Amino acid sequence: MELARLLPLLLLSAWLLPLGSFAAIVFAGPRMGRGGRKAAYLATGAIGAALVLSLAALGAWLWHHPLAADSQAVAPLSGDWYTLAEFGKLRLAIGYYIDALTLGMFVMVTLISTCIHVYSIGYMREELGEVTDPLVRGSDGGPLVRPGRFPRFFQYLSLFCFSMLGLVVAGNIAMVFVFWELVGICSYLLIGFYIERRSASTAANKAFIVNRVGDFGMIVGIMILLGGLGTFAFGDHLGAEGKVEPGIFSQVRPASAEHGLVVPDGLVRMAAADRLAAVYASMPSADAAEEEIARQIPQLRRAGYGYGLLILAGLGIFCGCVGKSAQFPLHVWLPDAMEGPTPVSALIHAATMVAAGVYLVGRFYPVFAPEVLLVIAVTGCITLFLAATIAIAATDIKRVLAYSTVSQLGYMMFSLGLGGWAAGLFHLFTHACFKALLFLCSGSVIHACHTNEMTEMGGLRKKMPWTAGTMLVGCLAISGAGIPLLIGLSGYHSKDAILAQAFSFARHAPAHAWLFYVAAAGAALTAFYMFRLWFMTFSGKPRVEQVYDHAHESPAVMIVPLVILAVLAISAGWTLPGVDWGLPELLEQARPLGTAEGFPEARTIAGLVVPAEHHSHAPAVHKIVSLAAFAAALAGFLIAAAFYGLRLLSAAAARRWFAPVHWLLVHKWFFDELYDALFVKPALFLARQAAEIDRGVIDWAADGSARLCLRIARIDDWIDRWIVDRFINGLGRWTWRLGLALRPLQSGQLRQYVVMIAVSTVTIFVLISIYRNYAFLP
Amino acid sequence: MPLLNQPVSLSHYLLVGAILFACGIVCMATKRNAIGVLMGVELVLNGAAVNFVAFSAPFLRGDAELALGLDGHLMTLFVIVLAAAEAAVALAIALCYYNTHATIDVDQGDELRG
Q1: Strand-pair category, A482-483 with A487-488
Q2: Domains, chain B, ordered by start
Q3: Which stretches of A79-99 are DSSP H helices?
Q4: Which of A294, A409, A625, A731 could serve as a FRET partner for A529 with CA atoms 20 to 30 Å apart?
Q5: Neighbours of A338 (CB within 10 A)
Q6: Complex-level ipTM
Q7: DSSP-assigned beta bridge partners for residue A131
Q8: Is A751 in contact with B25 (Cβ distance < 8 A)?
Q9: How far apart are CA A371 and CA A323, in angstroms?
Q10: Could you tell me the pTM of the whole model?
Q11: For testing contact with chain A, the best of B21, B44, B112, B113 (most A CBs within 10 A)
Q12: How confident is the model at residue A777 (pLDDT cuts 50, 70, 90)?
């Protein structure tokens, strides 16, 4: 079968398999074996099959487009599986847009998810029977006892995978948005999995609401694109009359302009609506006006019309990504998302949810103007530094990892913003491997220790050798360990690529050179907090004997995914010598047309240059950056080792010396407090006022009318009782008395009756005669 | 006594009817025997029947040449038939009454008095 038909088919099946498993578990979950045990096998099987299909799709792709050191961009496959509705030019469709990035994401998402599914079978075992939750008080005052929710967990996992795959394969922005929201709701459901815990439900709400803030911007961006371009689709679409209808990407970067960024006609028209309306008014006919407008559009474009809208659209889309990928200033939800079960954290942090934001920035890369890219880079830079500093002071093992995720996502955004498209997405892939590994390791530790606090751990290396070893691999990978200029773990390659791009950017745009230094400092911080975590958890002497005694190595079903992920964390960044097979080469195939050369200049910001990514591969740049990054990471490692590993320096003393800084970091730069004061409190205040109005005015009116009704009813009652009833009763009593009075007349004496009849008749006759004056009376 | 001086006219008939009626009423009012009461009823009925016949006489009617002049007679026949039927029923009642009270004194039958 030819590729254009085979790939959509394979990906469609891979995409819909988790949905099928979700539906099956929804309807038959609790009946699948004892406690729903078989639901796990179903979900794992579905995602495993999806992995196989994705690998097949990737294989087919590589068969047709083999990788090479100088891979060229390959035209993506785009089309629709199913058209939902068509309104004139606007099409709502379930479509696909398949390139090497899509395929890479598919393999990555399904691979990580499969590992997490397998791991969850072991981790969530307690949910099979009745669960006693010591953190929640039940109605009887003791710890809450509730039925297990084993199938429900896997049901959500399946839906999560389905949503993420849908988002990745989506061929138009409307479909992206749908799955974007689905991913959001899945994370909401999973973060709030222990719904009885107040902290969990609050964290779920926080994640959902913070994401809504980002989505608001995203909707603005989508509306601008729809209003200006009249289409949702990414790729070109063959219209009904055989005419090619350009998609978003080819409108923004038309082939006629050699795929350079051009403000599309639609946006120019939108921005210059007033002037064009004047043209319409002055022209005799609509056709003539259209002609005149078509003549004027290039001038208007040169005058800058529509460029602002393009920037705004880019910023809007990025705003959605800020929410989803937990970038500053919307990063606050991700650390709280730790309330979910640990495999969920791994899934959210590695394969789904936060990856979605970075992926979308990568996908929408052709639409971003240099100004937008600068905003992305600065946002990423602030995020990576901020989160790294907070991670230094955190003591909750998952919280450290959460902030490290935020920091690494910052690196990705940073790289994308600096023009390092392939580098940023490369880091997305490698990060997925080692962050999933790190989280699953931390889950293994928590499973063994029943605590999240690193201050209660220590010395676990001997009890949990596998976990300690794989976690060490993860720490090395995220710190970017390697032999400089030669080879390293996956993080070494991707982080080097990012820093190289930052360095190249700093050379081309010296005004923004600070970005590179911050990123390099971030690399040192990364190594420091990761090894702080490892040393505190696994080395040294146990801090709390009770926890140490209780600890044990996790079962094989949890260890095997760790080993697989560890292997990936080591090797994901490698490019096989000789055949040039590697992720960077794969990503080069997906590079959006026209973005390879960067931007020589920006329209509104003087001196802003986005350099081409291949400049960063130059040996001169590479050598400096590689050594600098290695030095930074080594410095971080040595400091961590000095404080926590070898205990040459006292962490407590350092805390005292830098007390104000530590205070600031422990409180996470007071973002939660700030948002609480800025948004939550006013919102609650407004809500209270509304409640007051409800109580004071509306309730008062309602109660008042009820009271009025009551009063009227009382009066009515009085009238009934004292007038109507008395009249009726009186009548009855009167009739009764009359009857009594007439009783003696009914004597039973026949003869008396006869006399009465006779006398009465005569009397009546006499009376009538008197009144009618009959003549026979005298 | 002017009536006795005059030829027989309607008034005489009516007088006879009235006397019969009055006798019947008096009979009903005075007799304690149920049969006696029945007899009084017969007298009252016959008094009424005499009146019907008297009023139906052709020479007393203004429309004698138009009407057949038999309506009074017909009513009288009805009254006679009715009286016969009534007598049958009433005698049956009297028998029943005797069965239950061992007498036919109507004054004893005052169970339904008020």
Answers
A1: antiparallel
A2: 9-108 (1.10.287.3510)
A3: none
A4: A625
A5: 25
A6: 0.86
A7: A146
A8: no
A9: 20
A10: 0.78
A11: B113
A12: low
